[in-house]
Amino acid sequence: MxxxxxxxxxxxxxxxxLSLLGVDWYIEQQRKAxxxxxxxxMSWTPDKYRGENRNYIRFYDAGIFPQDKFxxxxxVMNFMGSDDDRFxxxxxxxxxxxxxxxxxLFIPVDKETVLKNGTVAPExxxxxxxxxxxxxxxxxxxxxDLAVYDIIATNDWKRPIYFTSPTDLGLGEYLxxxxxxxxxVPIRKxxxxxxxxxxxxxxxxxxxxxxxxxxxxxxxxxxxxxYFDEPNRRMLQGIRNAYTKVGVALAKESEKEKALxxxxxxxxxxxxxxxxxxxxxxxxxxxxxxxxxxxxxxxAGDLKKGNAVSAEIEKDLKQQIAYYRDLPANRMxxxxxxxxxxxxxxxxxxxxxxRQFNGPAQQPLEGQGQFNTGAGxxxxxxxxx
Length: 385
Known about the structure:
Elements: H1 2-7, H2 24-30, E1 56-58, E2 71-72, H3 73-80, E3 89-90, E4 96-97, E5 104-108, H4 111-116, E6 131-135, E7 140-142, H5 143-155, E8 162-163, E9 175-177, E10 182-184, E11 202-203, H6 205-215, H7 230-252, H8 256-269, H9 285-300, H10 303-326, H11 334-357
Parallel strand pairs: 2-5, 9-11
Antiparallel strand pairs: 1-7, 3-4, 5-6, 8-10, 9-10
């Protein structure tokens, strides 16, 4: 928010904090023009969400909406925003409350609009869905969820809508990566055969490449000696992952030279001593995302770099396995067991990568996979004493 407000960078865009969108005064702010950003159109008037009104709305099958059909999001928003008791459900104490009548929704698409305003490129016109059908993943919608759905339904594809990460709104199949952001588009995400979860996104390759290589500006992660704590490492991991998935997408399109440019850009600007590829973390998530980098380099044809990244990760994983193997049974909690199993699994995956791109894999460590999980191990690490 500092960039458009203070530094004057892109004052035409509106940055919305989804957590703050759960309070009425912040929703009201979106309804007003700010800097060069026009007001955000919404169908609900302020009285619909002011104070405690519609803090949350539950799903309830009242028998009036057949549950085997999909319903227009805009019409469902109007239903939930109605103050007419005929569109409300009764409670045990005699109150009447708004409810979500279905978990199957759709957003209609005007093909001419999305082509004209650049939401979809002309060469992708055949991929445009006539409507975005989706199923909600939760049975309670909170005020911020309701506000987002209202914004999307009322927007009618007139302005671009981006998210910083995939959401729990049920729209994941229609989010496309433009670099560090996910844009809502009327194109379904292609099926992915990738094993690693960070590489399953739908990437808008030319746009993402331009944004990462020509527009995004790094900070000081390339300067020796800069320390990043765990929260900042997670942020850097997101940046590295963005470059990785674009590199993979380019390599699959046989654009290996451009793929290496993208990968090497991230490698040079995220200095290894400051932000190593190998690092122990809860769930081994850090190493998992770094395996994607190794895979990307292999795919782009730089076997030397792929092997180097793999070797770093393997060293850390083997050290973890040795540590967990030596733990007494009463200290080998379920979360540590899960980390140990992942370490073993990831070693197998790295061996498979080397076999695929280099030739025969190395032999696994003797005794690999044998962890002390005897009767003395607790059933779960709940944190309770």
